[in-house]
């Protein structure tokens, strides 16, 4: 029961040891370890180098364990460590942290210097615990995914709260699927105003999930769940079609729709976009898709191809939340966005710090040189609005002017005149609601 590539015991061996090494008088502790970034290295450099890296990682793990723990390769880039004895938990965590430190140092593989991280999930079983090997592995696996969700490069111990949250997430998944099927979701729209005359020039579509008691489940909660459980394709397509249908008669203004990284990674997204435009009759030149830096930085080559396909329909692309991630001036040149949206945090910093203000003005100047429009997001005070105008922003979006409102209210606004600039005392410390 040995892994053919690394020579470590395999998954079957681990299941067997979890039974055979159980001591009613001693503690047992198990860690599942997933290598962070291995897939990217494997895809970029090829499977031969990937295999060599796995062998080296296995050797390091075997060395780090020494006589204190047993190491295993479960498949792919997943390893495990088992420790038994009175201090099994303490010993296991020490092994995992030493392994993390060793992997953080660059490894020399076939003439290349490679660095890799790990996410570890740990589960402790007290003396006399009667659990199946499958349940032991499940608990360590849940903890490992908690490490990944917390930012990777960390060790996380399993806690019963994880199962409680897991059940709550599963219920939310089921409820979201029902809400989509039964038409319980809604799309609201937050207007963007021209920085010069405060007239509405665009709206951003934001999905809402109202509850029977009058509350709402935040998009920041249910959209990540939709991405994880595979509902994002259905949800994203529904929002896009609903928005194109409702905004069809709002002539002379742009419709912005957020697109998640999961949607953009889907090779069928561009095709479905074309079908939605065809079914709704929405003019593609009035549609703008907002994307985030995270997706583009992760795989710029694939991202560039996806955005090129979208632009072939005549649809514009905006970079959302600029100032919160890794995007640089060179990044802006590479992707040639039609619009740059400055994140609220950048506006707040610019209002309080001269250096941040200078950086914001410089960024806007570069965007101008690249023929990009610039929108200031999350504007909540008159001072912030004045700063956005003085810095050269084309459009302003935020609670100072409008919250997200239903489609019928947008129609009324467009039919009327004037701008709904709210008193700052009504704004408080709230933030712009995001999809």
UniProtKB/TrEMBL annotation:
Residues 169-418 form the EAL domain. Residues 26-160 form the GGDEF domain. SUPFAM superfamilies: EAL domain-like (SSF141868), Nucleotide cyclase (SSF55073). It holds the Pfam family EAL. Transmembrane segments: none annotated. InterPro entries: Biofilm_reg_signaling, EAL_dom, EAL_sf, GGDEF_dom, Nucleotide_cyclase, Rev_trsase/Diguanyl_cyclase. It comes from the Bacteria. NCBIfam families: GGDEF (TIGR00254). This is Bifunctional diguanylate cyclase/phosphodiesterase. It comes from Alteraurantiacibacter aquimixticola.
């Amino acid at each position: 029961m040995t892994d053919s590539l690394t020579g470590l015991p395999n998954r079957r061996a681990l299941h067997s040891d979890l039974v055979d090494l159980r001591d009613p008088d001693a503690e047992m502790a198990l860690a599942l370890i997933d290598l962070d970034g291995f897939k990217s290295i494997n895809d970029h450099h090829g499977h031969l180098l990937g295999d060599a890296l796995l062998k080296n990682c296995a050797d390091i793990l075997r060395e780090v364990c020494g006589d204190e723990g047993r190491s295993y390769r479960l498949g792919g880039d997943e390893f495990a460590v088992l420790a038994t004895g009175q201090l099994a938990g303490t010993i296991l965590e020490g092994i995992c942290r030493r392994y993390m430190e060793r992997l953080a140092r660059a490894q020399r593989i076939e003439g290349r210097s490679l660095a890799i991280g790990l996410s570890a999930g740990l589960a402790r079983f007290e003396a006399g615990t009667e659990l199946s090997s499958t349940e032991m592995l499940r608990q360590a696996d849940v903890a490992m995914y908690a490490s990944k969700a917390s930012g990777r490069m960390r060790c996380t111990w399993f806690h019963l709260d994880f199962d409680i949250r897991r059940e709550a997430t599963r219920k939310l998944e089921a409820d979201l699927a029902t809400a989509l099927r039964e038409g319980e979701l809604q799309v609201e729209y937050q207007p963007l105003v021209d920085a010069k005359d405060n007239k509405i020039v665009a709206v951003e579509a934001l999905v809402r999930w109202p509850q029977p008691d009058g509350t709402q489940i935040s998009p920041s909660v249910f959209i990540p769940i939709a991405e994880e459980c595979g509902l994002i394709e259905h949800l994203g397509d529904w929002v896009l079609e609903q928005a194109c249908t409702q905004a069809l008669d709002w002539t002379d203004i742009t419709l912005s729709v957020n697109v998640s990284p999961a949607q953009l990674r889907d090779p069928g997204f561009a095709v479905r976009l074309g079908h939605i435009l065809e079914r709704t009759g929405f003019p593609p030149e009035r549609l703008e898709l907002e994307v985030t830096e995270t997706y583009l930085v992760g795989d710029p080559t694939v991202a560039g191809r996806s955005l090129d396909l979208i632009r072939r329909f005549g649809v514009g692309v905006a970079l959302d939340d600029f100032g919160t991630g890794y995007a640089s001036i060179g990044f802006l040149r590479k992707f040639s966005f039609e619009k740059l949206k400055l994140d609220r945090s950048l506006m707040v910093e610019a209002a309080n710090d001269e250096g941040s203000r200078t950086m914001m003005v410089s960024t806007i100047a570069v965007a101008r040189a690249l023929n990009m429009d610039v929108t200031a997001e999350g504007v909540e005070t008159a001072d912030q609005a004045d700063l956005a105008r003085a810095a050269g922003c084309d459009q302003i979006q935020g609670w100072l002017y409008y919250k997200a409102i239903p489609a019928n209210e947008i129609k009324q606004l467009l039919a009327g005149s004037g701008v709904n600039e709210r008193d700052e005392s009504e704004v408080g410390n709230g933030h712009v609601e995001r999809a």
